[in-house]
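Throughout our pipeline, every protein is held as a single compact record rather than as scattered files. Such a record has a labelled line for the sequence and another for the backbone structure tokens. This encoding replaces a full spatial description with a residue-level series of whole-number codes. For reference, a complete record is included directly beneath this paragraph.
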Amino acid sequence: MSRSGDGFVVRTAVAPVLPGPLAGLCPGGLDDRARWFFATSEGVVVGADLESGERFCEVALPFPLYPADRQPVSLGAQLCASPDGAFVAVAERRGLKGAVVDVAVGRVVHTFEREAYHPEHCTYPLAFVDTRRLIHGVAWNLLAVLDVVTGARTLPSAEAARFDYFFGALAVSPTGARLSSSGWVWQPTAVTLAFDVERVLRGEAPVTLGGLDGDAWDLPMCWLDDERVALFATDANHQGQLVIDDVSAANRPLRVKPCDVPLELGRHRDELLLLGDVTEARSVDTLEPAARLALPTVAWHPGAREALGFERPDGSGAWHLVSRPRPPGPLPASLVEQARRARAAGTREARLVLADALESAGLPGPELEHLRAERPHGARCHVVDDLAAG
């Protein structure tokens, strides 16, 4: 592990040997561990822990994919995992076919398709809203719901079929209550929409909470909470901009700053992380740049709060994991030292000792809950790293 002078932490990832060219990837759930899923162009899904090197899944899909290229006009694979990492959904990014893999049993348990109406122009809509309900596209303007445990499906109603919008890439708010879509309408015009999940779960047409227009779609976006979403967009002059939009506010968007197009957006505490050829941190409050790391990253893990990057864009060469620890506020020096000891130990016992120290210091909250949680955990803990940076 190495720490750069600008607050980023870089550690070496244990890269899995993949049975073919990389076609897509996604984090392996919301647990605080370096588990990821990868898909190859031959249609093989591999689950791997990039900290320990463990391969916990390898399943062949009933269809091939295409080599990865994260640009909006590319082909490739679209992946998303359930929050607990028990299931992973994979689809042709600009194609028709999709499947769900049950990780524990190691096989495909469901397949699905969307209609062949301009799929080449929009990413396959795909998102888990909880541990068992997967929302996926079935037509250019229609979303269905699949219960991956029972196989029950909720198909869109006749009313939903009148919704005039090409769904694109989906993003889920932190509680799973809302979705955003980076899609488009004819002529074409890019439109990023936000809407409540509940209507989709009932098979009804979404009631949009508002949208932003532009000239490009399938662009990065990241919910900050259930009201605000950060996204990349383009203005009337085709210039890139980073936007924070409050979907419930009358005056929108909240903030706009010029920005080069990132591959993905991530959020950690008071900062947005912009992933791409360089990794940039910006303030959530002002969108002003805070730090830059001259190291490429391609995908964000919201559970582990770190980004994955490759030495070369095709996934060859060395892999690395990048984080940017941010303390939750001013901390006593004794607590910071305790956190540094817990970081060096990398054990659950050390995290529990730190949790006791946190409670004794009168600092309850999500950090304390995270340290004491019995959910699966890697040796590294993002809360320990944050406290150790205090």
